[in-house]
Specification:
This protein is of the alpha/beta class. The protein has a domain of 122 residues: 3-Layer(aba) Sandwich (Rossmann fold). The chain is built from six helices and five strands, in the order E-H-E-H-E-H-E-H-E-H-H. Strands 3-2-1-4-5 form a five-stranded parallel β-sheet, sandwiched between helices. It is globular.
């Protein structure tokens, strides 16, 4: 009995690009951990900040991009960019073949799974890759950081230095302490 030969796997041509989409309002140390790990898997990682037509964030999209850029200087091949519309369209625009998502706790799984399935339906050529953060980042979210800061709590341990400075500046300008 003769075995059917499988064609050899094709080597990828060009740089392997991944998009890490989210609101990053603000970016946390957990987000940075995911970015660092993704940067070891891909030639280029684009932290993609989606613009929402009706929601205004804690920081403007432009400010978030600047804070992310200030926080990722140690990572070659990583950059921040804002986008409008569907993330799969942005992935196609930048030539990304993968989308990176972080899964923190069990509650993240179902909505992330649904989103990944919808993205797969819309763009089957783009893979979704889930990365799980270290335990100390499992329950940290941007909204938790904002909540702690709004009550004057110690939020600095959860965000990179440039973000902590920007949050303190914002509260000082509002006449409150973070």
């Amino acid at each position: 009995m003769q075995r059917e030969k499988t064609p050899p796997a094709r080597a990828p041509s060009g740089p392997q690009i991944a998009v890490y989409p989210g609101s990053f309002d603000p970016i946390t140390r957990g987000h940075l951990e995911i970015v660092e790990r993704a940067s070891s898997l891909f030639d280029e990682v684009i932290i993609a900040i989606g613009r929402h037509p009706t929601k205004h964030g804690y920081f403007s999209v432009e400010r978030r991009c600047a804070l992310i850029e200030a926080s990722i200087g140690h990572l070659p091949g990583v950059r921040a960019a804002a986008f409008d519309g569907l993330v799969v369209d942005f992935c196609r625009e930048v030539g990304a073949k993968a989308m990176v998502r972080g899964l923190r706790a069990i509650g993240d799984f179902e909505p992330e799974f649904r989103m990944a399935q919808a993205n797969r339906d819309l763009a089957p050529e783009i893979e979704t890759i889930f990365l799980i953060p270290r335990p100390e980042h499992m329950y940290v979210s941007s909204s938790l950081v904002r909540e702690i800061a709004s009550h004057g709590g110690d939020f600095e341990r959860y965000v990179p230095g440039p973000v902590a400075e920007a949050m303190h500046s914002r509260y000082a300008a509002e006449g409150r302490e973070a």
